From TrEMBL:
Lineage: Eukaryota, Metazoa, Spiralia, Gnathifera, Rotifera
Origin: domain of life: Eukaryota
Gene3D superfamilies xrefs: Ribonuclease Inhibitor
InterPro entries, per the entry: LRR_dom_sf (IPR032675)
Protein name, as recorded: Uncharacterized protein
């Protein structure tokens, strides 16, 4: 019994277990809090023969010096910020996931250099304050044959995307996230389609002013669509989904102000008109004064398709008669086609 207990203590953990443990920690934690725990753990951490997969390394303007023992050739996940040189990327030869935070003027040359070396990136995430040079950036990114997931986030409200005459060649990217503020229109999406014909998951925004003029059937493998909403009319969602004959799953998040979102028959019609669509995940908010939101029959109909319309104030009964006072409402749930057919 004593022998079993001894084997379970930390100093006696074997190297295989330490290798597994290290997979759950960021690089900076490994070389600060987890070093010198035991001779076995240090052997795994500092001996290159174990080929650890090091995650979560961040290099920014506050990084004065990296640990001398840090094997950059074992780093598989890296975040670097504006101003960091290309040298560190050259040393991360096993890199699989890269996040770049900065201006496009710094990002584009960096991505171009990465594409010219033997780097097998699978995931690329870019955070930038503007998307003026989006088309130029994409023409560089799509040269990565190994890339499967791309995320681009921007927050500039008035920036316009510069036109680009360079064609985009098909990539193998399957997961595309474009959190790009109102500046990217669905016309822009039409331009980039040729480079993303293999995507299976698309996450984009839909704003109040957007009018769908793009045919997403050109994404033949697209199965899952997530929309971040900012007060678009319900009809625009209908119009968008109608161009996606192979869509299986639709996710809707954000803020809406169209009353059509709370009518169950609208969602049933959307499911029926899109035979491939099996599931709609809903989590949207309203700020409303209309009495229809308190209608019991409306709530029963929504419950029939597995949706709940909830007043985001606990004392619902107290406020139910103050119909002209604005309340925040949450419409949430998962509409399943098979569930609707049996109810």
């Amino acid at each position: 019994m004593d022998k079993v207990q001894t084997c379970r203590s930390i100093p006696h953990l074997c190297s295989d277990i330490w290798s597994e443990i290290f997979q759950y920690f960021a690089v900076t934690d490994l070389y600060s809090t987890l070093k010198n725990i035991s001779s076995t753990s240090d052997e795994v951490l500092f001996n290159g023969k174990y080929r650890n997969q090091l995650r979560g390394l961040t290099v920014d303007s506050h990084t004065t010096k990296l640990p001398n023992e840090l094997p950059l050739d074992q780093v598989i996940s890296l975040t670097i910020q504006d101003g960091i040189s290309f040298d560190i990327l050259q040393k991360c030869c096993c890199l699989r996931s890269l996040k770049l935070v900065g201006q496009f003027e710094w990002i584009i040359p960096l991505v171009t250099k990465c594409s010219q070396i033997s780097m097998h990136l699978e995931q690329l995430s870019i955070v930038t304050p503007n998307i003026k040079l989006l088309h130029q950036l994409l023409s560089c990114i799509l040269s990565f044959d190994s890339l499967r997931r791309l995320e681009i986030c921007a927050d500039e409200q008035e920036e316009k995307i510069e036109a680009n005459n360079f064609p985009l060649f098909p990539s193998k990217i399957e997961h595309l996230i474009l959190n790009l503020c109102p500046a990217i229109t669905y016309g822009s999406l039409a331009y980039i389609q040729p480079g993303f014909i293999n995507i299976r998951y698309l996450n984009i925004s839909l704003f109040r002013h957007d009018r769908i003029s793009v045919n997403l059937s050109n994404f033949p493998y697209l199965r899952s669509l997530q929309l971040s909403l900012l007060e678009p009319p319900f009809e625009e969602i209908n119009r968008l989904v109608a161009t996606m004959p192979n869509l299986v799953k639709l996710k809707l998040y954000g803020i809406v102000d169209d009353e059509n979102f709370i009518y169950s028959h609208k969602w049933l019609h959307l499911l029926e008109s899109t035979p491939s669509l099996l599931r709609i995940v809903m989590d949207v908010s309203f700020q409303e004064t209309r009495s229809i939101f308190y209608n019991e029959n409306l709530h029963k109909a929504l419950h029939g398709i597995n949706l709940s319309l909830i007043c985001m104030i606990d004392d619902f009964d107290c406020y139910s008669y103050e119909e002209r006072q604005q309340r925040w409402w949450q419409l949430e749930g998962v509409i399943r086609k098979n569930y609707c057919k049996t109810n």
